[in-house]
Amino acid sequence: MEQSTEYRQQLIQEYKQQTIPLLRYLPWLEKNAGQLGSTIYQGAEANENAMHFPVYDSTLMNFVKEASKSPLMYRNYSYVYTRNGIKTHEDERRIITSAELRDWEMLRGILSKYVLGGRTKAYLWSEAVQENIFCLVLKQMQKIIEFWDKPIDVR
Fold first, then answer.
1. Residue 145: CB partners within 8 Å, gap ≥ 6?
2. In whole numbers, what is the pLDDT of the chain averaged over residues?
3. Rounded to whole angstroms, how far apart are CA atoms 136 and 33?
């Protein structure tokens, strides 16, 4: 029994080290929940034939850059979705809010879908902010860590 307690504490400390760098973006993610996190650049002149492209908020880009380097990224995130029957944003939110320590891989998978998937489908970054996915995942990770350890002071 003591061995499993030691293992759990070791796991929590590892998760804590991986999560803390991303928690500093939580205030921005909370403030921008429901918003796009990007604008569409149309050029100086309103030309209907001009190519329009998204311009992402610098904080969002910093978050994505830092998260993509994090050990929290799970390259096989699609398996999390198929194994758990996740098809909609509502499914994601339901799983995120009910996640416990044993569900850490699911949280990693959901976060990874939007961070890594956004490299080829950039709209995923804006979608994750708008649908509050980034914020919910980070809050749930923090909640799990704080349940098993002590409150995290992010400054």
1. 12, 15, 16, 19, 152
2. 88
3. 10
**Model confidence pLDDT, tens digit, residues 16-69:** 999 999 999 999 999 988 777 666 656 666 566 666 667 778 899 999 999 999
- In order of 7, 50, 111, the CA distances from 115 in angstroms are 29, 28, 6
- Residue 25 CB partners (closer than 8 Å, separation 6+): 59, 62, 63, 66, 134, 138
What's the pTM value of the predicted model, to 2 decimals?
0.88
**∠ Cα 70 130 125 (to 5°):** 40
Q: Is residue 6 within 8 Å of residue 142, measured between CB atoms?
A: no
What the block records as the tokens of 136 is: 């919910």
Find tokens 């098993």 and name the residue.
148
